[in-house]
């Protein structure tokens, strides 16, 4: 999509499109209306994070920092320009990015200085090779959060396919043995499950088809979220690199006997797509529905003002705000000179989990009226119980959103035991689970059924006895078929 | 300096050079030995943040996030590539960066995509122009933390002059009136004072000479730290842009009467130089001395092990570590299989503020021996008093470091009332304070005295009656003369 087309799609300031009917338009509009990003920055695939969106994303980032560091991963930072000679140490890797690569020039003669990092390997591994000398230096377990740059020629879509992929994290670990390497991959999967829980979205976890692995890798696990239209969004991958990259980048270590060995590696990465998954999963026709964990404001306090009682109501809402702050709840007091209706509308678009209202009636009754954004339920709570109730409501909302996501993800996936049934389900906008024997020719036959739909992986955990949908061979492997983002 | 020369300077693994005698070498060595940055990344002026250095820097960054947000500044993020047409909206600004600019190319024909951001104005202000329509949209008070890129042709020096300037923050605000704009500049000065206190370094605050202001700006305040050799390091600047940039970038607003007005702007920025100032100010011949506020570990616990009592000592140090953690003190238990001496050495290089030792004698006496990194004082503390004592010691160290910095900064500055005396003081490695009438010709005469030494600004607060050191005219303006970084 060109920048102009993207802008047209916004059709501001019209009312938000219905999410169910026009998901793609809804997504573009809500990013703008809820102040997540501004796409009017005049470069394709490069957008401005507005404050509300950025704070939401930073809550997620802070959580991955917490999870990674708690588990002993060390945060590092590598320069964003990668020397070409580093890139060329792994020609296969580099050729994969050459066309999609931004290069950086400078100086009087516009000499090439390097590549703008498409991903971290080529920046990091030459340094890893310097740092790792003996078995004592292993495991090396590190990560960084930084932008990645891809000169995408396909349609771009904010947070989903950007040319500057902002707030992208990469974990890169090196181990002495294959066993340690495989164990580490399991750790990364566990960290990612925590991130998915944090945004209250239920992912599908798959084994990559062998031919889609990084060149030389010995395994790859990918996370996908299934959107309401049955499409699958790749959303985080754990790549068991084995020794392929270590060989290219010369990551070697002396073992206890002084013998030289090659390191075993895992690399794992994801970023703002996690947020995109949450926005798309939880939002509704009124706007965003943010999980309390990532909401910049977990509660918005709205005074219902009448001239006569203005002073006492303002005193009460200010006190309420203070109570929230003291309880560690992120709160905003909306004291703008707007009608309550206007304020409700604004904060519904932005998806604030709880709205607390205080009007003259509530003061008489010594209560606060609270409205849950996710289901619109209105609850009157006595003031003295308020903080504990608010805390438990936030927890409840987080759980409700996750349960809803689990349920809906299951509903978005249908099982087919024939290509005909598979096609029907795809037509209905479902993601389809099939038995598949893992052979390339059967992959191709499945892919030929419906344009754009293909196998994106095999369920990492679930097995089911059956016959390959294409060749009828017995197999317990379950694969997923869908259009992908 | 070339990369090779830089590497040579490290002369690893020899012992750290004496800081007083060879400050520049000491600085290069300590960055490497204390795991702050690794300069072996093969691009001039681009270095890898190692974990210890990065965590130190992130503690500082977290604090500026805290200060800025507490004061209502909103964090944003703008793409790192700036469209050339945005740059060209302010030709004066752009021409200043053209030679030092990195440009980004991509696509089959290597088309120019934009400039790699040298600083934020050209990326931000075209968006500001879209966001600001009426007086209701003002003030706009925002900041971002992001890398800046300069193709420096001069010697580079890690954290001080880099080609990728990492963890750089920029505050950009827009106001309806000049008065608001000037008031905001004062706010920024106050925020910066808090950052300087946080790293326990005493800055010199100056008014920029008029001809060094940003083109069209109406004022500029700069922070400098004075290093032990009497040199001045520019370290943060508050630029009162007035309306100059707003005119170029079309930042206009309708006032209450519907009349169109031009916005008033302040932009303010700094980054890792603050850390460099702290490392240089506090370090000694044994290594770094980190202020507790930014130290990744505020305490390192070292068990003094003898085979017989090993178990009970380990139990005690582990409990101690837990106590620290529960008290919110950042702690590391060094349980490596190394001698205590080796551990002391390592953590002295890294500048951990407190070292806590427990040996068999201490267990008998129910005490912990604590050593302050900044002055080497050894204190035995009864175990039950330990946490409160440790907390108060950390506070004390922070204060001691700041006081020492205030005292030493004062000692590094001498006053001269003649050019001859000024020259003598400069020869002695002092920064020199002089009376200066603010005229350009007198500036030139001062500059001619000693190569490399020049007036870098006038004291922002202090006035003193006297006569211009060059023309003998009466003036109460006090200027600073030094070699600058």
Automatic annotation (TrEMBL), chains A, B:
PROSITE patterns: AA_TRNA_LIGASE_II. Keywords: Aminoacyl-tRNA synthetase, ATP-binding, Cytoplasm, Ligase, Nucleotide-binding, Protein biosynthesis. Its main location: cytoplasm. Its EC number is 6.1.1.15. One of its GO terms (molecular function) is ATP binding. Gene3D superfamilies: Anticodon-binding domain, Bira Bifunctional Protein, Domain 2, C-terminal domain of ProRS. One of its GO terms (biological process) is prolyl-tRNA aminoacylation. It is found in: Cytoplasm. GO terms for cellular component: aminoacyl-tRNA synthetase multienzyme complex; cytoplasm. It catalyses: tRNA(Pro) + L-proline + ATP = L-prolyl-tRNA(Pro) + AMP + diphosphate. Residues 45-291 form the Aminoacyl-transfer RNA synthetases class-II family profile domain. Belongs to the class-II aminoacyl-tRNA synthetase family. ProS type 3 subfamily. Consists of three domains: the N-terminal catalytic domain, the anticodon-binding domain and the C-terminal extension. Homodimer. Catalyzes the attachment of proline to tRNA(Pro) in a two-step reaction: proline is first activated by ATP to form Pro-AMP and then transferred to the acceptor end of tRNA(Pro). This is Proline--tRNA ligase. It comes from Candidatus Woesebacteria bacterium RBG_13_36_22. The lineage of its organism: Bacteria, Candidatus Woeseibacteriota. The gene is proS.
